[in-house]
Design brief:
The structure is a homodimer of 142-residue chains. By secondary structure, the first copy, chain A, is of the alpha+beta class. Chain A contains five helices and five strands, in the order αααββββαβα. Chain A binds a DNA duplex (25 and 25 nucleotides) through helix 1 and helix 3.
Chain lengths: 142, 142
DNA sequence: GTCTCTGCAAAGGTTTTGCAGTAAC
DNA sequence: GTTACTGCAAAACCTTTGCAGAGAC
């Protein structure tokens, strides 16, 4: 069904190589260093295809452009409101997951996406690059 | 500081009136029935402004266009993979929230976004409108 | 009177798509 | 040989922005 194209392999390898949840455009720039004639459309098509197949993860829930993650191990993402960095957190939330499942009753859950937002360790210690504009959302959305 | 414009009030009322997490464009269509000359730009500006003030909720983590929610009470969203509907779920996740906070260590969490994905009660009982294309993501991302 | 907000329209950014040619099988 | 995939370019979206005028206070 699917063919094993050089471009697709490069895209996957580049995505797995970095830890930075790149956008399609960023993947395009990385891939172009190895396949100079690769097109942005090809990158979009392959990222979407691999996300559908479950080979990579698509991050819809972060601000702005869609991002992709080559790391399939269960983990969460932490977005620092001060510096804008996106961190990987590996929290063991099995128990919480089970609780959510049981609470959801007849809604059959196959996937739970969690995004944490706040202030990262670096931004808490003194040097705040860019303090958040308005102090809203103190109450969590959980 | 902020002025009390008629357009802003209409936008807020319309958003609160419905349960359908509309996009900016959908809010625009609703608002236009009451303020025919309202512009899309005004809708975007006001939604963004109210989201920043914490008067409404902005849903970044759902597919496609950004959506807004006029309901500020803590709740989660459930996206049905089969029919595409977006449900509100009111699960009490205080305990889980506390656990996440403690696990996150030096990452100071101010907000936790949770999205649940799966199959809704209606789609489970027989009549599947459009069965999911590929059986990926059986493991949760938690 | 001041200053924020509006409508309009244009621009900006991201993602999708049509098509003819290329490459994988 | 067949058919999925590619590069290119245009189109389709969604969102933001500049500006002059209107409206809130």
């Amino acid at each position: 069904m699917n063919r094993n194209s050089h471009q697709r392999n490069v895209i996957l390898e580049e995505l797995r190589r970095v830890k930075t949840h790149p956008t399609a455009d960023e993947v395009y720039l990385m891939a172009r260093q190895r396949v100079p004639k690769i097109s942005l459309g090809t990158v979009y098509r392959n990222l979407e295809l691999m996300a559908e197949k479950g080979i990579i993860r698509r991050l819809d829930y972060v601000d702005g452009a869609r991002r992709y993650d080559g790391d399939l191990t269960p983990h969460q993402h932490f977005l620092c409101r001060d510096c804008g960095r996106l961190y990987d957190l590996f929290l063991d939330l099995h128990e919480s997951l089970e609780k959510v499942r049981s609470l959801a009753g007849s809604f059959q859950i196959s996937e739970i996406k969690v995004e944490l937002i706040g202030s990262c360790p670096q931004c808490q210690t003194g040097s705040k690059d860019s303090p958040s504009s308005s102090g809203c959302s103190t109450g969590a959305e959980f």
